[in-house]
Amino acid sequence: MNRAGFGIRLGALFIDAVIFGIILWILEFIVRSVFGISDQMDPNAGLPVLGAGLIITNLASFILALIYYVWYPVLSNGQTFGKKFTGIRVKRTDNRDLTFWTMFLREIIGKLLSTLILFIGYLMALGKEKRGLHDYIAKTEVVYIKQ
């Protein structure tokens, strides 16, 4: 199969970021309204007050990320909405079915590491293999859908 290059993957990521951002904004609005959470700032430090509201919104954000980037692609043949729009998908290198654990390794653990090392893990996808660090960690690759 023909592996997808860096540019098309970046395009899919951009589309997903916009969709995820809109959904996250709506979810946070609902959570803040239901729980009566406001953006409290510590007047001395100028930082947000750490409290139950911040914990609840961060937990809701993490759960949404698990649903959108991990669970949904497992159910939809390795595709998020951005990948569907660009005609690419994630697959395992051994051609077995994607699992929740495989996508968790790729999207949460692998991408966290790729980010922590100054995005070098993402830039690896510019190489000959067209695989980022997160792909190597999860034993996945991003390929074009057969037309």
TrEMBL record:
Looking at the record, the residues that make up the RDD domain are 4-139
Q: Under what name is this protein listed? A: RDD domain-containing protein
Q: What subcellular compartments does it reside in?
A: Cell membrane
Where does this protein chiefly localize?
membrane
Cellular component aspect of the GO annotation: plasma membrane
Where, by residue number, does the polypeptide cross the bilayer? 6-27, 47-71, 108-126
Superkingdom in the source lineage: Bacteria
Q: What PANTHER family does the entry give?
A: MEMBRANE PROTEIN (PTHR36115:SF4), PROLINE-RICH ANTIGEN HOMOLOG-RELATED (PTHR36115)
InterPro entries linked = Pra-immunoreactive, RDD
For this UniProt record, the keywords arranged alphabetically read as follows:
Cell membrane, Membrane, Transmembrane, Transmembrane helix
Entry membrane topology: Multi-pass membrane protein
